[in-house]
Amino acid sequence: MLKIGVVGGTGYTGVELLRLIALHPQAELACITSRSEKGLAVSDLFPNLRGHIDIAFSDPADAPLKDCNLVFFATPNGIAMQHAVELLDAGVKLVDLAADFRLKDEALWTDWYKDASRTGKHACPQLLEQAVYGLPEVNREQIKTAQLVANPGCYPTAVQLAFLPLIEAGIVDVSRLIADAKSGVSGAGRGANVGALLAESSESMKAYAVAGHRHLPEIKQGLQNAHGAEVGLTFVPHLTPMIRGIHATCYAELTSNSDLQSLFAERYKNEPFVDVLPAGAHPETRSVKGVNTCRIAVHQPQGANTVVILSVIDNLVKGAAGQAIHNMNLMCGLDETLGLNAVALMP
Question: What predicted TM-score, i.e. pTM, was given to this entire model?
Answer without folding.
Answer: 0.97
